[in-house]
Amino acid sequence: MVSAIQRVGLGVKPPMAYELSRPILDEEVEEVTKWIEEYKQSWPRTGITLMNDGWLNKVSKNEFLNFLAYSPKGTAFLSSKEVSGTKKDANFYVRLYDKIVEEVGDKHIVQFITDNEHACVSMGSKLMDKRKHLVWTTCAAHSIDLMLEEIGEIKIVKETLKEAREHSKKKEIIRPAITRFATDYLAVDSIRESE
């Protein structure tokens, strides 16, 4: 994008704040809405995988669950539910997922994927009992994260990481991890690369 701006030269005037906040934004909303409607047209033919991702707003401390639909045509955001202050047990997740399934359309969902926390595992079984055609799967990335977290607790691994940090010549060995539990393994790789 920068090189395209450079090629055009100094005569380019950026859009005004009003243009960005109204006409241009409205055009983008219209384009995305049209894409989502076309996307939904493929659901009867291909079905979708319903996925969710939880996150915490670190400023407001509000917790959210975002729901996404995946199909061969791509992934689309469906909705976000604020879940702050709720008891997140299996019954909570069953009610929440049941509501989302109804909103999306039971006949379109082939599979749903959740984290591996106990309440989600219990919910998966309950929802499959209720809706026989659905398949529930745990999130592979979350499973790997949990395995790495447990491996990181092994005494020799902890000691090795501690010693590696002491010999890093005060260089930063931890880089932001794509997944939080992979940080130790990225740190060791960083040490290896800096030698």
From TrEMBL:
Which parts of the sequence belong to the DUF659 domain?
15-166
Name of one Pfam family that matches: DUF659
Q: Which residues form a coiled coil?
A: none
Q: Which InterPro entries match?
A: DUF659, RNaseH-like_sf
PANTHER family referenced in this protein's UniProt entry, alphabetically: F16P17.2 PROTEIN, OSJNBA0013A04.12 PROTEIN
Query: What is this protein identified as?
Result: DUF659 domain-containing protein
Q: Which species?
A: Amborella trichopoda
